[in-house]
Amino acid sequence: MQDKDALSKTEAAYWLLRRDILNTRLRPGASLRLSALRDAYGVGWTPLREALSRLEAEKLVTAISNRGFAVAPVSRAELEDLTRARMFVELPLLMESIEKGGPDWESAVVTAHYRLSRCKIVADSASEEMADEWDEKHTAFHAALVSAATSNWLLRFQSTIIDQLRRHHRFLGLAPTQRAAAGLSIGYEKAVAALQDAMAIEHHTALMEAALDRDLERAKALMTEHIGYTLEVYIRSEDEAEEPAVSK
What we know:
By secondary structure, the chain is mainly alpha-helical. The chain is built from ten helices and three strands; from the N terminus they run αβααββααααααα.
């Protein structure tokens, strides 16, 4: 019984920490002090250490020599790598789904798109609850698109990549507003506009229609463009933030 209790506590700690890391409630790079986590989550030392070790294996947490753990950082290099990986994994899954998907697949894609379309979100003023809902519906839409594929390994890789990208998406959503709050308002409007454009339902609608029309080339082109949006937003956001003020 004690072993089962310890296991359930470790599982609880793992899922709570994982949720808050993916949603960036625990910010990229933040120190994960066991005493603070114990107080915040009401979980003991051993379950926390075991949960953090699991998250380290998933590259969501990093171990710092003699300093404990920290949330894995996000970076442009990491985002570029994840974007390439997603291209290699998700495009073949989408192509296979379009070729093999039947009525149930079509229904799942249409339903997931409808639910996503009902999420009205504004990039620079979304609450955590709104952002959580959009993340959930957006992930479900992309999962539906590839759900007729048969490669369990590729589907597993795709899910892992999507989880890692989720942190970057949430960080991008916070970064322009946080810079503006700190008085660094250069590029704020362009960064938010780029983010809002990337989240627009129109892109997802076009992707859905190409998939349902079994238009492989158009679907591939739209998915390639769609996957690149996050990187585009990051680049534009960072470039604008670093742009020097023009002297008058």
